[in-house]
Amino acid sequence: MTATATPAVKATTATAVARRPRTQLWPALGMIAPAALGFLVFYLYPTLRGAYLSLTEYNVLGSPVFVGLRNYVDMAQDEVFWNAIRVTLLYVVLNIGFQTVLAVGLAVLMHRLTKSVLIRGSLLLPYLIANVVVALLWYWMLDYNIGIVNAVIDAVGLPKVAFFGDEAWTVATIAGVNTWRHLGYTALLVFAGLQMIPASIYEAAAVDGAGEWRTFWRITLPLLRPVLVLVLVITVTGAFQVFDTVAVTTAGGPGNASRVLQLYIYEQAFARGHFGYASAMSVVLFLILAGAAFAQMRLLRAGESDLS
Amino acid sequence: MRTRITWGRVLAWVVLWFFVLATVLPFYWMLRTALSDNHALAAQSFSLLPADLTFGPFERVLGLATPEEAMAEGGSGASLSFWLYLRNSLVVATAVTVGQVLFSSMAAYAFSRLTWPGRDVWFGVFLGALLVPPIFTALPNFLTIKSLGLLNTLPGIMLPSLFMTPFAIFFMRQFFLGIPKEIDEAAMIDGAQPWRIFFRIILPISAAPVTTLGILTFINTWNDYFWPLLVGQTEESKVLTVALGVFRSQTPQGAPDWAGLMAASLVAALPIVILYAVFGRRVINSIGFSGIK
Amino acid sequence: MKRKMLAGAAALASLSLAACAGGSGGAEAEGQIDYWLWDSNQQPAYQQCADAFHEANPDLTVKITQRGWDDYWSALTTAFSSGTGPDVFTDHVSKYPEFVANGQLLALDEHIADVDLDQYSPGLADLWVAQDGKRYGLPKDWDTVAIFYNQEMVADAGLSDKDMQDLAWNPDDGGTYEETIARLTVDANGVRGDEPGFDKENVAVYGLGIPGAGYENGQTEWSMYTATTGWTHTDENPWGTHYNYDDPRFQDTIAWWYSLIEKGYAPPLETTIGASVNDNFGAGKSAINISGDWMLSTYFGYDGVDVGLAPTPTGPNGQRASMFNGLADSVWAGTDNPEGAAKWVAFLGSTDCQDLVGAAGVVFPAITSSAELATKAFAEKGIDVSPFTTHVEDGTTFLFPVTDHASDVHAIMTPAMDEVLGGKADVGSLTEANDQVNALFD
């Protein structure tokens, strides 16, 4: 179906020129009107307002005072900000890494082993629970002293792990918790992609005597690439905006080890009353996200030809 | 050859079941904690069974326990109007789901199957909204809701996500792009107007992705925490996720009411689980639409 | 008076009055008063106050909203910024200076002229007078800290409850306080911390549980030690403009405190992030915790743990010390009913309400006589709270530091203290953090 998507657009456009009225501007405007209203009022306007506020000193309670680029200059010298960028990147790499690898593995397992809806259904369960609750549940289970996970680790004779408290573990732990919540969902996306790969290709591979392992690397993965890139676009953007999980567990600690950018922005804006500075950091986060999305879109375009 | 595959298959099944268990076991721990006496939890933290089995946490959540009873089991003295919060959550999630899916589908239709100048540019602009950090827009949107006089009302909670999300438009557009052109071409030639084609032809054949998007939207709205926390502060406008906050720490250094929190989380997830049980097969089978195209 | 005669008409009118509360603009206060607090354990007691208040002032109804500590301040800030703040709210000394600086609080002086400020425990009322000389809060309660210990563990260690009541501490060798902590520490093989062969890598019960690194104030972490060395957080209090985290007395104390972790007598910082310090106590993972009186019901609630209380140790100056913190009720400047709000604050600060709160036995009311009711209520539950009250009686309290820029100071000191207690940085690094903090006041 991926293969047909792009040609379909082109075909529609081509015939439209020939047979349809030149433009369907008015109906189109009518149809996007409600969405456009939502976009203008709740996305565009606050974004522009935030961009302006990034040039001000504004503590939310008073009124904004224009300070030019000072917030950006301060940011360049703010060690905590640069640390937040590093921590966020580390989180994105770990979370996306775990999640994508495991999701592909799971999807392939399901695809090759079972069509059981029960298994797929249970894998999706964590997605039904709110982020904040998932975070607290794991905070409780992974506690060093009274958590069940460390009790099990201890029982089998391994050294206990301070999952949230040890600087070496904390970001990986948070990435793991979010992976737990999203794994089933991501795996189902990949699974859907797998189902589009024609069975005949696998049959041909089996006739050639290719083993499961070889089939995976030579056939499944390359054909899955467009789907994977799309999954990545969605998950990477989300991962950069990690907030809830950190806010209700470590609150950025120990030290600054898990102070991700969005949390630092939140603290500056709502706890420390530096809304202008927080806005400036949001602008930078926006630019980072745009850059990441742009890079991925290029990959996506590169991936589109794979199936043909 | 045959044995090698069998060995691999056994291993594969083991791995798969490992993941299923890793996914499901924490839910058992939630239930086990939710049936415990909060005072006993710390001392019996490694017991696989509920610590001093009690239905108290569920009674606290449903507002059936008096403050004295709640505090006797380590709960909080705050009163809960569970059914009111449940109603609020249902109203908000339903309205947002209907509005967002309908309006986003309409926009997606215009962005995919209608021809008009600037279409792709505007689509790109809409999609750019995906990159705006929610923290960034929270305060301005809060002020907007305030100037509309909708603070602490359910419409105030709904409004920002009622009309669209970039993801919803993207999702539906991807599906519409894949519908063969012949399907609406004929109607077009017969002189049918886009509105009619959308509601009579396109929407009906898109039942599967619409259901999927609807359920995803419902889940996300139901589980949203940060925005309703800002906008719905009164009893009358509190949704379930915000009400759960009562079980988190009340004082600096105070421990959460773990049992109550877990019970509340389970109860709050129940409507979603029911929804999921009803539409589950359909969702599981069609959840990939956003990824396929 | 007139209103009473027109009761029937007033009842009808009250609906519309409530709808445009404050719109009447008359001298008489009426309508609904929104009141916020964070501690749900106290909500039932304050609901009693609200009912009593309504009885005394039938025109006024108080509506209590409880929001947990985690969300309280950001919710308050957004509510203020949007003009929807509560009329009256429970306020903290570390937070109110910034609200005053931004014009969010109503000066109470003229509204509470007849309130006798001497009825409150000494010092509490002064905390709430800002630099402009005006009063922004009326004291509602106070807290001090004390030692919570596991009686069974103390007995097993061959110590008596009496031994626990008179511990002495110094920053050089830790004194009898450290000896006791060492004695109460037990490793996985049952060897005590003061015995040969103690395995500090494999500790089953820590002598001293710690809640964390203590942020900028160390209320329940280190302030009861530092204060006995003569050190103070700031140059003056309230309204200091210079912090003293570079002082050797402070840094030596922190170095000693950290040495407990190195010796295996206290848990490594990384293991304290997670379930709260009190839950670990409840699970039998620590023998001694230092905490505030607001945690009494939590500690005494744990199943299977017999809790004892003892006053904090005496220090180099020969005295005990406890931070003395007081909450107050403040009125938001944007209230549409300043008269009614001030009336409610005055009621909250009166014996009428504080006696009710005291009798509930959850916290010590600011009014001395009401606090005695609390002591009695705790005694009825079998809890002797004298380790907390002794500080007030002996005058060994010192006030919670009140300065400007509190949230920035908090944000700078939190990671800095984490680094030191986590063993990632030397106590000397606090000097640099102190420079950053003091730069805020330039």
From TrEMBL, chain A:
Membrane disposition: Multi-pass membrane protein
Keyword annotations of the record: Cell membrane, Membrane, Sugar transport, Transmembrane, Transmembrane helix, Transport
A GO CC term attached to the entry: plasma membrane
Domain of life: Bacteria
Cell compartment(s), UniProt: Cell membrane
One example of a Gene Ontology biological process annotation: transmembrane transport
Family matches, as InterPro entries: ABC_transporter_permease, MetI-like, MetI-like_sf
Chain segments annotated as transmembrane: 25-45, 89-110, 122-141, 183-202, 223-243, 275-295
Family the entry assigns: Belongs to the binding-protein-dependent transport system permease family.
Protein name: Multiple sugar transport system permease protein
Source organism phylogeny: Bacteria, Bacillati, Actinomycetota, Actinomycetes, Micrococcales
From TrEMBL, chain B:
UniProt GO cellular component terms: plasma membrane
Family: Belongs to the binding-protein-dependent transport system permease family.
Keywords: Cell membrane, Membrane, Sugar transport, Transmembrane, Transmembrane helix, Transport
The protein, known as: Multiple sugar transport system permease protein
GO biological process terms held by the UniProt record: transmembrane transport
SUPFAM superfamilies linked: MetI-like
Spans through the membrane: 12-31, 90-111, 123-145, 157-176, 197-219, 258-279
CDD domains given in the database record: TM_PBP2
Location of this chain's protein in the cell: Cell membrane
Membrane topology field: Multi-pass membrane protein
Residue span, ABC transmembrane type-1 domain: 86-279
PROSITE patterns from the UniProt entry: ABC_TM1
Main location: membrane
Automatic annotation (TrEMBL), chain C:
Superkingdom as given in the UniProt entry: Bacteria
Cross-referenced SUPFAM superfamilies: Periplasmic binding protein-like II
Pfam families: SBP_bac_1 (PF01547)
Signal peptide limits: 1-21
Annotated keywords: Signal, Sugar transport, Transport
UniProt entry tagged with the keyword Disulfide bond: no
Record's protein name: Multiple sugar transport system substrate-binding protein
